[in-house]
Amino acid sequence: MSAKDIQRPTAALRRKAVRIDRALEAYYGVPDRRRLDPLSELVLTILSQNTSDINSGRAFERLRARFPTWEAVRDAPLEAIIEAIRPAGLAAQKAPRIQRILQRISAERGALSLDFLADWPLEAAKAWLRRLDGVGPKTAAIVLLFSLNRPAFPVDTHVHRVGTRLGLIPEGMSAEAAHDWMEALVPPERYRPFHLLLIRHGREICKAPRPRCEVCPVRRMCAYYRWRSRPLNPAGSGGRRSRPAGV
Fold first, then answer.
1. Rounded to two decimals, what is the model's pTM?
2. Would you say 24 and 163 are in contact if contact means Cβ atoms under 8 Å apart?
3. In this structure, is residue 93 part of a structural domain?
4. Whether residue 144 is found in the same domain as residue 43
5. For residues 41 and 215, what is the distance between their CA atoms, to the nearest angstrom?
6. I need a surface site. Which of 36, 66, 162, 243 has the fewest CB within 10 A?
7. Which pLDDT tens digit goes with each residue over 195-212?
8. What is the CATH number of the domain that holds 68?
9. 201, 24 contact by CB (below 8 A)
10. What is the CATH number of the domain that holds 169?
């Protein structure tokens, strides 16, 4: 399902998102995240794919310690890049991807910088980033939001899972389609903090296999919690609840 296949978020759903946002911030506090230049953010995000923040951060620091400029990374022997980023996992896939991206930026822009995207129309900036090898809507949105302060809402696995369980993201909507949906649902000034709050909630309480609903600060607003709390269906229906899609 794509965002174009269904109506835009209702006013009631937008109000619900505001209430959840406020409740999560009251529970976790104001979220913070270090700011990197956009090219560094792009490389770090690629390193973070399919691994933990600890591992990707260690790989990023090793890469920068060994190659202090992006030009040095671009021109280094591939095996040296693989060795430097090994803590991130899948190094044999990520290293050539990073080098291809650096080479393409150099060829197209003449310099290793993504600062020019700050002045581009938002949709053009998203499209340009997504032309790079391995860059999807989530990675593009992360670079734009966190490094360039552009109004893009990244949807990773945590945001997609938590948003679907809460009923903020429609059942069956893909993570890719949910980017446009969340941008229509959430006020732009809250993209950054709400994204971070949903991620933290997904890691600490609304976990993938066993959500800790009993301690969840937003359970009273959660579609998944309402489903989980309903009594079993009467005899004749197999004694099971009808589980909603996506949860």
1. 0.88
2. no
3. yes
4. yes
5. 33
6. 243
7. 999 999 999 999 998 999
8. 1.10.340.30
9. yes
10. 1.10.1670.10
Q: Answer whether 78's CB lies under 8 Å from 92's CB.
A: no
Q: Which of 16, 94, 138, 207 is catalytic?
A: 138
Give the DSSP letter of residue 244: P
Q: Return the residue matching tokens 């269906």.
A: 233
Domain co-membership, 180 together with 116: no
Total domain count, the chain: 2
User: Among all chains, which residue has been given the structure tokens 């009808």?
Assistant: 242
Known catalytic membership, residue 126:
no
User: Beta-strand (E) ranges in 46-158?
Assistant: none
Whether 158 and 138 have beta carbons less than 8 Å apart is answered as no
Give 27-52 pLDDT, tens digit per residue: 999 998 888 999 999 999 999 988 88
What is the domain range of residue 78? 38-148
Residue-level pLDDT at 242: 52
Quick one: 109 and 197 in the same domain?
no
